[in-house]
Structures are given as structure tokens and as C-alpha cells.
Amino acid sequence: MIELNYCLYARKSSESDEKQALSIGSQIAEMERIATKQGLKIVDRIQESKSAKDSGKRVGFTQLLQGLNEGKFNAILTWAPDRLSRNAGDLGKLVDMMDQKILVKIQTSGQSFTNTPDEKFLLMILCSQAKLENDNRSKNVKRGQRTKCEMGVRPGPVPIGYKLIRGTKYGEVSTIEIDKERAPYIKRAFEYVAYKGLSGRQAKEHLEAEGFRSNYGKVVGLSLTYKILKEKFYYGEFGYGGLVYQGTHKPIITKELYDLVQANLKTCEKGKWGRKDFFFNKILKCAECGSGVSGTTHTNRHGTQYTYYKCNKYGGTKTCKCKYIREEKLFEEVAKIITEVKAEHLRLNRRIKEDLDKINRYQSAEKPITLQEFLVGILRDGSKKEKSDILRSFRDKLLIKDGNILLE
């Protein structure tokens, strides 16, 4: 007679498919009552809160299999078969261990399973039934979501600018209403891009200055701004599951306004909407507090956009009074430093000098272009590679101090 040493295994998932299962504490109490009544020897306990729908995803179950393989115990005590497995992969591992006589017995609250054909077959049926319930529930959820879409209601949370009003009584259908506080900002965002020709970044800055905030009172980020400008929901349609449905909610904008915005929106090559390259971020440093320097853009009330660099105050002080520097001035000062400082500080790309010599060789004007003028032109209008070639010439950091640039 083989001595049976049990591992008590309790599992409870917070997912909706197992809301009716006993809590872990109740499972343990029930199993210990059975162990006392039947004289079962419990040598180990494992408990976890994890769904058993997917194979190989449970740490506790992996420990259970490891303990069986190492001979720490040879039997399992659990509340029901579906606590052990709701998928074919984990079920197959248990049955395989029974075939190898590593797992001698599984004891549940109502029955036991040993290495006999009938009992193993029954175990597989019960666990497979649990898997079937999971699969059918997933199908039913998808079918219900599709039906909801066909009725004109998008599943999930509503976009900013709308409010979801849940029914107060059982069976009462939720409704979607326009958020009167934020909807005007949403409409203006589309109008700024469609009629004033602003970019998404510029529209964001205008709305932020006007007081536009998220549902949680925070500043709306650039990515969310572009998500708003791409959202079909605002003109009455919505996408779900790869299809487009007509909603029953009240639109904030017209389809014509939406289409005009899509035509005006410009995206960068990598698909990061409105992103600007701040080439000096990596080589600039604040001379006063040692923090890094970050570039940013600003649009004034006339719609003119300009770029400037300022201390990001990450060096441990929030009182740094370092002045910002405009990008145009930065171009001029960097070009001046390159032309004036000693050669050991720089490793200027030879091709830049060759290009300048070639231009001056064929320049018809009496006054040749200076290296400084040439560098300013590249920094202002050159390609990414040309700008990078210039900035890679600096071995040392550039310092920003009182709105001026120094070489460290």
C-alpha cells in the first residue's frame, strides 16, 4: 500500500468566469475538514489567485507539478477538478503524471480520481467541460458585443467629450450623453485644424491655454489630442472589431468637418503625429544646476510657432533661474563656437568643409559664404543627417547660461 502525501491546492480567479467559486479561504477550510474526516496527510499547501484558462501561466500550478516530480508529495487535495485545470495543456500534464505513477490520487470535495481508465476518463470529462464553458462564454461575449454594436452602442468607455449614464434600475439601458463642459473644446480642436490650418500640437497648445482638461482634471497630452482628432465617434460612427457602425449617440461635429481634418493632418515618417526633432537635447546642459536642457515649441496668439530650449530642472533644484534660448539664436551661437574654438574641441565632418569650398568656388557673388553662415543654414534648413554631422563634432557638452551658449 502506497502512503499518500497530499498537497492542498486552492485557486480562485477574480475573472467573471469564476465569480461563483468558493473563496480561497473557504476552499482551504473545506479541504481541511475533509482531510480531518478521512485521515488524509497534508504535507504542503499551495494557493493562488489566477485564471486557469491558459496553459503554463500559473506559478502555483507549476510549483505543484514540480513538487510531484521531486517526490515531495504524490497526491492532490482540491475543492473541484476545475480548480486544477480549465485547459487541455495542464490537464494533459496531470493525466500524464498519473500514467507515470508520479501522481497517485486526486481527492476533491465530492469524489476521487486514481490511475484507472474510468476515473481518468471522468477527470478529463469534468475538466474538458470547464474548458467548454470558457470557450462558449467567450463566444457569447463576442456575440453580445457585436449585437450591441449593431444596435448603435459602442462597447467599452466613451471618448472624452461624452458621459456614460448608467441605468439606476435593474435592466435599465445605459445612455450616452454629451459632456457639456468638454464637448466645446473637442469641436474647437477640429475647427482649429480644419479652418485655421493648425497642427495637432498647435491645437493642443491653444486648448490647453483655454482651460481644456481631461475627465480627471489633468492636461490633455499630445497623443490623446491626435487620438481625438482621429476619432470617428465624434461625428456619429465608431469602429469595433475591424468594422464601422452607425452610433445612436448625438454627434459633436459633422462628417464634413472630420474629413477636412483628416486631409489637413500631417504625420511624420514614423507615424508619431506632430513630433518635432529637438537636435540639441543631448548636447545641451544647464550651467547653473547641471540639469539637462529640453526643447519645446510654443504658438503665440497670432498662430506663429517658435522653438526654444530651457533647463528641465532635474538636477535637484526647482529654483534654477536659467533663461531659455530661442532656437534661431542657438543656431548662430553654435555656428560661431564651431568657427572660433580650438580644433581639439571639434571633429567637424570633412565633407562640410568640402561642400562649403565647392559652393564658394562657383559662387558668382563677390563676397564668399563664411563657414558660420553655412553652418547656420544647415542647422536651420538642412536634413537630419546634415544636422547630426554638425552636432557630432562636439566632444564636450554645450552649456546654456543666462540665455547664451558656452562650451564646457
Question: What does this protein structure show overall?
Answer:
- With about 400 residues, the chain is an alpha/beta fold.
- It has 13 helices and 15 strands.
- The strands form 5 sheets. Strands 2-1-3-4-5 form a 5-stranded mixed β-sheet, with helices on both faces. Strands 10-14-15 form a 3-stranded mixed β-sheet.
- A hairpin with a 5-residue loop joins strand 11 and strand 12 (about 305-310).
- The radius of gyration is 34 Å and the shape is elongated.
- Mean pLDDT is about 80; it is low at about 265-275 and about 340-345.
Topology record:
Layout: E1 5-11, H1 24-38, E2 41-48, H2 59-69, E3 75-77, H3 81-84, H4 88-99, E4 105-107, E5 112-114, H5 117-150, E6 162-165, E7 175-178, H6 183-195, H7 200-210, H8 222-229, E8 237-240, E9 243-246, H9 255-264, E10 284-286, E11 293-299, E12 305-311, E13 325-326, H10 327-340, H11 350-361, H12 371-381, H13 384-391, E14 398-401, E15 404-407
Parallel strand pairs: 1-2, 1-3, 3-4, 10-14
Antiparallel strand pairs: 4-5, 6-7, 8-9, 11-12, 12-13, 14-15
Helix pairs in contact: 4-5, 6-7, 6-9, 7-8, 10-12
